[in-house]
Amino acid sequence: MTDAVPAASSTPAPTPRPAPGPDVAPAGGSPADSLLVRAATGRPGPRPPVWFMRQAGRSLPEYRKVREGVGMLESCRRPDLVTEITLQPVRRHGVDAAIFFSDIVVPLAAVGIDLDIVAGTGPVVAEPIRTRADLDRLPELDAAAVPDIAESVRLLVAELGPTPLIGFAGAPFTLASYLVEGGPSKTHARTKALMHGDPQLWSDLCARLAQIAGAFLRVQIEAGASAVQLFDSWAGFLSRRDYERHVQAHSASVLASVAELGVPRIHFGVGTSELLEPMTAAGADVIGVDYRTSLAGAIDRVAGVGAPAVQGNLDPALLFAPWEVVDAQVRRIVSEGRGASGHVVNLGHGVLPDTDPDVLTRVVELVRSLEV
Ligand code: CP3
């Protein structure tokens, strides 16, 4: 079979970014005026905002306590737990944004896919999707299937006041990888075999996943999320050619589907230095920079692709190094970020589970002290 599917092969036009509004000051009165939303829309405040991917989770003893005896998927569907877990890192670290406590596979479970999130492993799918008949078992997501998600977001927005809530979804490629492989994979071999062996089925699967991801983001935004992040965690396993031919248009479609809602969109992947330009061209307002990629270099590279704001990119492993090392790296990242249209300080991937949470708090304090 040939390997190109026309619909996914051309570079999409970037979707419109929210227009920069008047420079409202002081920052912090409402989520829309927050440092996060300002940086993400190219109106940086006196210092960059800081939050951490996986800031809620196993690094926090209070998280481990409330999760005792409650399965991961179940905890994602209980508004009382979602609210508590999402707020924990905001209370403890004073981060500038909350990230909604959920998982990228929650909308897949909501449309009826039989899956579990296994501790220490990740999502495991009972019957993988590999044929046209399998795809028929993956319906579109209707907001009515996730009333608890909207409820959790509403509760959180009321609690958070001026602190913005970031909603999220998994991007089509990363979701497809879990569905096709049946679980986490080190090679993504079956996923790539499907992409190349049956490009039409691959394209149809990704189009369905784009609908599901877009609908999941829309539910969160309409309930009050102030920004969203699209996680394409495993896109870095693709060549640039395969990304451009088989993946980019589907991620672009997710981002475009929520553009009219007017909240900034962050687009993140791991090991994606090679994909930085095509991921940026998919149309987000903020491009996530993983920890292997130079932040200053990334800022130069995306300047030619609409100059989005950047997010990143402290290596999560460095949080285990002596404080002087962390201090120097955070200062360097903040300084390099001043060359961007906006910069959101974050790790270059999620918090590792055995990270000392006090180091995260110190990073927040340090960033807060770096006002100009
Ligand atoms: O704090 C936050 O960042 C918000 C919550 C969040 C979770 N998953 C909670 C979670 C977010 C944004 C995600 C997204 C997610 N889930 C991604 C993309 C982000 C990334 O890290 O690249 C991916 C690839 C998944 C799939 C998934 N779910 C994995 C790989 C794992 C870890 C498996 C393990 O136990 O090591 C999960 C489970 C998961 N999702 C946990 C959390 C807090 C751990 C569950 C536990 O506490 O046992």
Descriptors:
372 residues; globular; disordered N terminus; 11% strand; two-stranded antiparallel sheet; TIM Barrel; 17 helices; alpha/beta; seven-stranded parallel sheet; single chain; binds coproporphyrinogen III
Give a verbal description of the structure:
The strands form two sheets. The protein has a seven-stranded parallel sheet. Strands 2-3 form a two-stranded antiparallel sheet. It has a domain at 31-283: TIM Barrel. It has helices spanning 6-9, 35-40, 61-67, 72-76, 79-93, 106-110, 132-135, 147-160, 172-181, 189-197, 199-222, 240-246, 248-257, 276-281, 295-303, 323-337, 357-369; strands at residues 98-99, 115-118, 122-125, 165-170, 227-232, 265-269, 286-288, 309-314, 343-347. The chain is globular and about 55 Å long. The termini are far apart. Helix 5 (79-93) runs parallel beside helix 8 (147-160), helix 11 (199-222) packs parallel to helix 13 (248-257) and helix 16 (323-337) crosses helix 17 (357-369). It has 372 residues and is of the alpha/beta class. Helices cover 44% and strands 11% of the residues. Coproporphyrinogen III binds at residues 53-58, 67, 72, 99, 101, 103-104, 117, 119-123, 168, 174, 231, 233, 350.
Short description:
The longest helix is centred in the middle third of the chain and has 24 residues, at 199-222.
Give the overall shape, derived from the CA principal axes: globular
Rg over CA atoms = 19 Å
pLDDT averaged residue by residue: 93
Oligomer: single chain
Largest sheet: 7 strands, parallel
Unreliable stretches, pLDDT < 50, 5 or more residues?
A: 1-28
If you consult CATH, what is the topology of the domain at 31-283?
Answer: TIM Barrel
The CATH architecture category of the domain at 31-283 equals Alpha-Beta Barrel
Helix content: 40-55%
Largest sheet: spatial strand order: 1-4-5-6-7-8-9
SSE topology string:
HHHHHEHEEHHEHHHEHHEHEHEHEH
* Number of distinct helices: 17
Spell out which ligands are present.
coproporphyrinogen III
| Sheet/helix structural class | alpha/beta
**Count of individual beta strands:** 9
Strand content: 5-15%
The CATH class designation of the domain at 31-283 is Alpha Beta
